[in-house]
Design brief:
With about 400 residues, the protein is of the alpha/beta class. It has 16 helices and 14 strands. The strands form 2 sheets. The chain has an 8-stranded mixed sheet with strand order 4-3-2-5-1-6-7-8, sandwiched between helices.
């Protein structure tokens, strides 16, 4: 990199500059990432990648793959998004988050050489550079949105593509139907590269069609049950996590890392039905933020005493909330950021209280939860991160 890191200080690293790198109406796709990787000397060619795509479960699957690869003795990178508390959570090497000094150095380079780069493309480029410099052997790379239209399509040396599932999300970008979204996500397939999926129904039909056209070997629980079989349930709770674990196990076995399956099943991932005991009450924190995810959450948690919910306005908030309405009779609505659906609107439509500030909303939700009762937090990973941070600072 041409530019040295700035001296530590109040603007070190300059996260506001990085977060402000929006696409500003530009089309999504891998071209921006390809240009950045070229400018950096193609670091993505230095390591093998496992691309993880899908509507939900990508983060959990990535955590399991990371744990399994490390247990198999592989020097492992992991690229995920979004982060819960710190930007550096997005880029990990052998389980350790990125050093902020490297973020600062990269931002300095980007200001000079890629001032128009988009946030996700820049973060992907930084991850690839770090993985190359750290001599990572295999990197687990989570897609942002879609497959063919995602920046991770710029990756080379893809060893496998793991497609978790397909549901309605990011419809403005990927299409209005499950079939359209499945086609974009399946577009991550490459000739001769294993495409593994636990998708079902119409989505699987589309994925199979794309795989055949591209020439990608398609592996599913139906076609290869031995690959997807689990010796025991995963540590992460919920039936949906069993599906994610089966996909991670099958991917590890396909790539020759079967000895890492047990470690993969032991993996944990924050804000995925995470249980926190607080003042004699149970708080379940989950990042479910679309209808597909909240439906799975409602199956995993059929009853809670109180629901603390907040979602982003760009999502279909009503459809996301719908599966959870029968879970909890008492609801507190809040705003996880400036772009949230106004909590007062949700309270008026669905019944409950509106407390815009997440910290105050957590206090109110806890006060409404009876001793020994359960508070469920859902609707946004941003809300999950805020609640986790609050719980960590409050007396238990």
């Amino acid at each position: 990199m041409a530019a040295p890191p700035p001296a530590p200080g109040s603007d070190w690293p300059d996260y506001p500059w990085l977060y402000a790198r929006t696409r500003a109406g530009r089309a999504r796709g891998p071209d921006g990432a390809r240009a950045l990787l070229s400018a950096l000397g193609h670091p993505e060619r230095a390591f093998a990648s496992i691309r993880v795509v899908g509507t939900n479960g990508k983060g959990s699957t990535c955590a399991m793959l990371e744990a399994g690869l490390r247990a198999a003795g592989v020097r492992t990178g992991r690229f995920t998004s979004p982060h819960l508390h710190a930007y550096e959570e997005r880029i990990r090497v052998d389980g350790a988050d990125l050093d902020p000094a490297r973020t600062a150095a990269f931002i300095a380079w980007a200001k000079a050489h890629a001032p128009d780069g988009a946030f996700f493309d820049l973060t992907l480029a930084l991850a690839c550079q770090v993985f190359a410099e750290e001599r990572v052997e295999v990197a687990v790379m989570e897609a942002g949105v879609g497959g063919q239209s995602d920046a991770t399509q710029a990756l080379s040396r893809v060893a496998a593509v793991a497609l978790t599932n397909v549901g309605l999300d990011h419809t403005a970008v990927l299409g209005e139907t499950v079939a359209a979204i499945a086609r974009d996500k399946a577009g991550a397939a490459q000739p001769g590269v294993p495409l593994l999926t636990t998708a079902t129904g119409e989505a699987l039909t589309v994925v199979a069609e794309v795989a055949q056209t591209v020439g990608a070997p398609l592996l599913t629980p139906h076609s290869h049950p031995e690959l997807f079989a689990l010796p025991r349930p995963p540590t992460l709770a919920g039936a949906h996590q069993t599906q994610n674990a089966a996909l991670a196990a099958a991917t590890l076995r396909t790539l020759g890392y079967a000895r890492g399956v047990d470690a993969a099943l032991n993996a944990v991932h924050p804000a995925r039905l995470e249980r926190v005991e607080h003042s004699g009450k149970t708080v379940l924190v989950d990042g479910a933020h679309n209808p597909h995810a909240t439906h799975a959450l409602a199956l995993a948690v059929p009853h809670a005493d109180v629901l603390l919910f907040g979602g982003l306005a760009r999502k279909d908030t009503a459809a996301t909330l719908a599966p959870l309405l029968a879970v909890a009779p008492t609801r507190v609505f809040t705003a996880p950021g400036d772009l949230a659906t106004p909590p007062a609107e949700l309270a008026a439509m669905f019944g409950g209280e509106a407390v815009p500030d997440p910290a105050q909303a957590l206090t109110r939700a806890l006060s409404l939860t009876p001793p020994g009762g359960t508070l469920l937090v859902a609707g946004s990973l941003y809300l999950a991160g805020a609640v986790r941070a609050q719980l960590a600072t409050r007396p238990a």
